[in-house]
TrEMBL record:
<dbReference type="Pfam" id="PF00528">
    <property type="entry name" value="BPD_transp_1"/>
</dbReference>
<feature type="transmembrane region" description="Helical">
    <location>
        <begin position="26"/>
        <end position="47"/>
    </location>
</feature>
<dbReference type="GO" id="GO:0005886">
    <property type="term" value="C:plasma membrane"/>
</dbReference>
<protein>
    <submittedName>
        <fullName>Osmoprotectant transport system permease protein</fullName>
    </submittedName>
</protein>
<keyword id="KW-0813">Transport</keyword>
<keyword id="KW-1133">Transmembrane helix</keyword>
<feature type="transmembrane region" description="Helical">
    <location>
        <begin position="84"/>
        <end position="101"/>
    </location>
</feature>
<dbReference type="InterPro" id="IPR000515">
    <property type="entry name" value="MetI-like"/>
</dbReference>
<dbReference type="GO" id="GO:0055085">
    <property type="term" value="P:transmembrane transport"/>
</dbReference>
<feature type="transmembrane region" description="Helical">
    <location>
        <begin position="54"/>
        <end position="78"/>
    </location>
</feature>
<feature type="transmembrane region" description="Helical">
    <location>
        <begin position="133"/>
        <end position="159"/>
    </location>
</feature>
<keyword id="KW-1003">Cell membrane</keyword>
<comment type="similarity">
    <text>Belongs to the binding-protein-dependent transport system permease family.</text>
</comment>
<keyword id="KW-0472">Membrane</keyword>
<keyword id="KW-0812">Transmembrane</keyword>
<feature type="domain" description="ABC transmembrane type-1">
    <location>
        <begin position="19"/>
        <end position="203"/>
    </location>
</feature>
<feature type="transmembrane region" description="Helical">
    <location>
        <begin position="179"/>
        <end position="206"/>
    </location>
</feature>
Length: 217
């Protein structure tokens, strides 16, 4: 087990340091993607004709290979975390925008009418009525985007980005230490499972009105 966690000095971080940096490089883009997706999704709901081109643009961005994205951004940000995080934030839009749009559109018309009758303006109605009801759909999108981001961060090793667990895959080959590759793959998988479980818990806490499994038995 000592070799499992004994990292080469070129990684410049301890095992826990690599885990922390990997999570930062994975989760910050998802948060940024969520903040960008919220107003875009509202525009798509308000002006339905915008939705198809927005969906088309996000799909095209998602179709661009991550490595190609990294290579282009190196000229602007160098071999840094930003070069890795910008594409991941853009990739998250293809999942988050449709999730938010579908969630907001699922709000019953009578609920919106009641909120309007109570004097709720468009912004207040969106923040206090539509988004809370859309939480399950939004969390579902976040689960996909988060797990995908945690996995894709490891590709950053191909541009020499220090800090991600993917660098252990390169060192496993360079130093002929397969234990490092096993460590990297298992850790990334565990992080994905834990992040997914945390988002499920967040959904449960934010939607106390939803039925739970086994309720009423």
């Amino acid at each position: 087990m000592s070799g499992f966690f004994d990292l080469p000095s070129d990684l410049q971080h301890s095992y826990l340091g690599l885990v922390g940096l990997h999570l930062r490089e994975a989760l910050v883009p998802v948060l940024a993607g969520l903040l960008v997706s919220l107003p875009i999704a509202q525009l798509c709901v308000r002006f339905r004709w915008i939705y198809p081109p927005v969906l088309g643009i996000t799909t095209v961005l998602y179709a661009i290979p991550s490595l190609a994205f990294f290579v282009v951004l190196i000229d602007y940000f160098g071999q840094s975390e930003t070069t890795v995080m910008v594409p991941l934030a853009l990739y998250s839009l293809v999942v988050l925008v449709p999730a938010i749009v579908d969630g907001v559109r699922s709000v019953p018309p009578e609920t919106l009418a009641a909120a309007q009758a109570m004097g709720f303006g468009p912004v207040r109605r969106y923040l206090q009525v539509q988004l809370p009801i859309a939480v399950p759909a939004i969390i579902a999108g976040l689960r996909v985007a988060t797990v995908s981001s945690i996995s894709l961060v490891s590709v950053g090793m191909l541009i020499g980005n220090q800090g991600a667990l993917g660098n252990m895959l390169y060192d496993a080959q360079a130093y002929e230490r397969p234990a490092l590759a096993v460590n990297s793959v298992l850790t990334i998988a565990v992080l994905g499972v834990l992040a997914d479980g945390a988002l499920v818990l967040v959904r449960v806490l934010l939607t106390p009105w939803m039925p739970r499994k086994g309720a009423g038995r």
